[in-house]
Give the backbone structure.
Amino acid sequence: ISVLRCYVINNPEINYSQGISCIATFFYALYKDESTAFTMLTSFINSSGLCDLLKDTVALKGYFYILNKLVAIFIPELHLHLFEEGVSASWFSSAWILTCLLYTSD
C-alpha cells in the first residue's frame, strides 16, 4: 500500500512497522483517497503515542516480554502450548494491540 510506504519514507526513524498496514488500510478504505489516508495515518500515529513505540523497539520488545509473562501467570496452559509450539505472543499481539489503539482512539 503506497500510504504505508510514504509514511515509512517520511519517517525514517521508525524501526518497526509490522501491523500498521491494517491501520493504513482502514484509513484508505474509509476515505478512498491516498493523500487523506496518509494524513489521517500520520495524525493517528502521532496523537496516539504509537509513534514512540514504533521508534523505540526496545520498549516494544519489553511490552511483548510483559505480555508473555502475563499469559504465563494467568493462562499457564496457553503459555505452555505456545512455548511447545515455539510461538511468541509478539507474533499475534502486535496487530491486536494496534487494532485496540485504532478503535479506542478519540
Remarks:
- The helical segments are 2-10, 20-31, 34-48, 50-55, 57-74, 76-85, 90-104.
